[in-house]
Amino acid sequence: MSAIHYDLGSDQILTLTIDMPGQSANTMNADFRAAMTETVGKVRNDIDNIRGIIVTSAKKTFFAGGDLKELFGVTREDAGAFEDMVNGMKAEMRALETTGKPTVAAINGSALGGGLEICLACHHRVVMDDDRIQLGLPEVTLGLLPGGGGTQRLPRMIGLEAAFPYLMEGKKVNPKAALKAGIVDELASSPDELMAKARAFIDANPKSQQPWDRKGFKFPGGAPHHPAMAQKLAIAPAMLKQKTKGCYPAPERILSAAVEGAQVDFDNGSLIETRYFTELTTGQVAKNMTGTFWFQLNAVNAGESRPAGVEKETFRKVGVLGAGMMGAGIAFSTATRGIDVVLKDVSSENAEKGKAYSEKLLAKKVSRGRMTEEQKTEVLNRIKATGSADDLEGCDLVIEAVFEDSELKAKVTREAEARLVKNGIFASNTSTIPITQLAEASSAPDNFIGLHFFSPVDKMQLVEIIVGAKTSDETLARAFDYVQQIGKIPIVVNDSRGFFTSRVFGTFVNEGIAMLGEGIHPSSIENAGVLAGMPVGPLAISDEVSMTLMQHIRDQSKKDTEAAGKTWNAHPAEAVIDQMVDSHNRKGKAAGAGFYEYPESGRKYLWPELEKLFVDQEKARSTELQELKDRILFIQAIETVRCLEEGVLRTVEDANIGSIFGIGYAPWTGGAIQFINQYGVRAFAERAKSLAERFGERFNPPAMLLDKAEANTPFS
Ligand code: NAD
């Protein structure tokens, strides 16, 4: 059965319905390409009997885009064949576009990537007016570019500048917004109307053509050589570099493809696009990003780390203890997903303050048109703010987010557990106290688990689920279901000090601070952090966390290590932190002074005294940027391997996803373990050894890494 149904009606309108057999969504793979070739051949034969062509889909989504499995497998050696294949496919699309007969896309569902590119190759686009439908070119988010003509057709339709957010940021829009942006031409309120409007266009435009195939075509918004546009384009690469820090080739190649393509005719522009597409597809960053943001994320979301055989649970009533920063955020994220929330603090006034946070976030949604006033009220009505533990009666799950104090946590555990439904779960959002230790206060430690959220909870997608020594598989599976029910990404880790994310995050921060202690200039350190791909520099983030908290966590870890009869290896960052806090009273951002100055008005800036206190001019001059970047990425990757080795992490997927979504590990790498794989396990181990010789044994490759290097097999 062909992937494209060919239906030539008695009214001489040809309907092409894309319906790939055996697939839930249409994708641009070999079957599709074969069907396109066959279809175009038939169209050529029948052309005299055809008045117009409608392209539509038999699936719920119109078309899902490129076949990522296929793209992922393309290597540099395949580049030539790949380029020919892509150009061949595009020639078929171009053939349909230039039959001389009107061609209309009847878009009945989401059209993303290659799906939208098919629509752009039609002369007219009608889309169902349904807010669930998304239109966009998200290739850039996987390190790729829209290689099916997207970088050529969209700018020719709506102008270069207007097209950039779609091409370079992967902006997606609903049908109404797409109409406003000029990406589609008409909306339809029913499937019948969709087809009727498509036919009406054909009737009214028997000789339609794409604008760029008409004589005298003028580039909307100005072609690149137009003086106003030329001025903007001159600074565009620099502005882009500021965003990508040179880590992401895709937006840069998209800019090149669009601008270079706009200076030649469509067909040559299309060839230029294919060149860049091939370069990106066969490049390492696209492999890293597609591998992690697509395949590994799908594996995580499909429940790879969820124990099998436990029935999926739907939570109805969740208690949140502590209405501070974290509790308020957890309440919001839970209530917006339709779950009743009991938000409890020491007094109902405190609890109301926490609820007010939800009101603020919801009001913002209403003002942006993303929510109605009624929906806002509905969500708020789901949150019961209270000072009484009795209101927790009947909760399926209670999450505590009270102060970081074991005794207090033990007290609230006992208080809440007595009111949970039978077999209810008690979860702690602690960031530092071992779950097994907290579970000692519980009367049902098998139902006790860690749910580590990240701040700000409403924005951060990750939740680190921490399994204590006595936590049952059933509790883990159900906690996993809750995290997914509130639309977040769950990773599963075994109990250990700092769990996974805080442990790795600590190595990042400490490495940056150690560099300062060595005499490296603070701005070089901050620069190295962001140029490596981290969201902010290590000194800025230390200020956010607060250096007193860092001292507190270190003191506790040291005490516990020594109590266990082991020696504490002081990190070189410790002396710098103590000097900052104890000698200079610079504790961090909340205290108004840290590595940075925080003026009342204006932007923060590095504390000028740092230079006198720490910088060694000779060292500052002789240090290479690449070495600083390596140290930042290596130390975190090495700690991640230790977590795998110790069984704190269970899978490579959780490691990569957790490192990116939890601590912002450079996304271009595909995550802390993928960074090692793409560097090459052997080369990575060698570089780690040389860093260890110069900066200390913290860089020594763990045994698991040495084994991989020996066998030359990547982590999987
Ligand atoms: P916070 O100080 O903002 O809030 C704590 C709240 O708990 C306060 O409103 C306090 O009144 C309330 N509280 C105290 N005793 C209580 C009791 N007996 N019953 C109910 N409420 C009580 O603290 P936070 O930053 O929201 O952190 C809360 C927990 O989350 C801590 O364990 C912290 O380690 C953890 N955590 C924090 C972050 C973060 O970035 N702040 C991230 C992950 C985890």
UniProtKB/TrEMBL annotation:
- Protein's pathway: Lipid metabolism; fatty acid beta-oxidation
Superkingdom to which the source organism belongs: Bacteria
Please list the reactions this protein catalyses.
a (3S)-3-hydroxyacyl-CoA + NAD(+) = a 3-oxoacyl-CoA + NADH + H(+)
Give all residue intervals belonging to the 3-hydroxyacyl-CoA dehydrogenase NAD binding domain: 317-495
Q: SUPFAM superfamilies attached here?
A: 6-phosphogluconate dehydrogenase C-terminal domain-like, ClpP/crotonase, NAD(P)-binding Rossmann-fold domains
Q: Where would one find coiled-coil regions in this protein? A: none
Where do the 3-hydroxyacyl-CoA dehydrogenase C-terminal domain residues begin and end? 498-598
One Pfam entry for this protein is ECH_1
Keyword field: Fatty acid metabolism, Lipid degradation, Lipid metabolism, Lyase, Multifunctional enzyme, NAD, Oxidoreductase
The record lists the membrane-crossing segments as none
Family indicated by similarity: In the central section; belongs to the 3-hydroxyacyl-CoA dehydrogenase family.
Task: Quote the protein name from its UniProt record.
Answer: 3-hydroxyacyl-CoA dehydrogenase NAD-binding domain-containing protein
